[in-house]
Amino acid sequence: PEQQPPAESSGSDMRAIMQSSLRSRHLTLTVGMIALTVMTASFVDFQFKTVSRQAYPVGADLTAFLGRFYGRMSLISLLVQVTLAPRLIRWFGVGSSLLVLPLILAGGALTMVLLPGLLAGMLMRGGDFALKYSQDKTSRELLFLPIPLALKKRTKVFIDLFVDRWARGLAGGLLLLVTAVLHLDLRGIAVVTLVLGAIWLVLALLMRRAYVNSFRQALARREIDLKDLR
Question: What's residue 138's pLDDT?
């Protein structure tokens, strides 16, 4: 029978990947941005569901509204992925494209602070749904282009198994804190969302320079073949 690797080895592998990520400014910023993406999305989803229930207290009406909303957002997301995302990256570059989603979510959170309601919730959730898996995900995937292949594979495993889950757990704990302990209203939760979006924006701005530096270093080491790029 095939022998299974001991649990200690998988734990040490995860620690080694974490140490490699922390030694690289590029990867540290990438991991931080992905964590902020997950945490901000959790807060946005909570606020959208809250204002949706307030606007449509009847279950059938709420179901119909959510069906129409997500159906339209799925179509918009497809159109963004096919038409807008490649052009944004071509016109403004990867670094600037990373700013689009946090700017929209920060704007939606600010709208929720000033005018809490369904419109602000739709702006935040619609922007998140339409861009996160199209334009923003495309930009984030390109961040791994200048990373050596072996390190890239290990880092993606680390992000999928560790960063994503822990970020969701941290966001859930933070939501419990602000709702059940601090008893913040929608405006207060929107302020927290705005802070998360601001941190995300700072990391994205830092990533613009880090990405260019990593790309130049990869070209100097001949780890990227320009003939394979489009």
Answer: 83
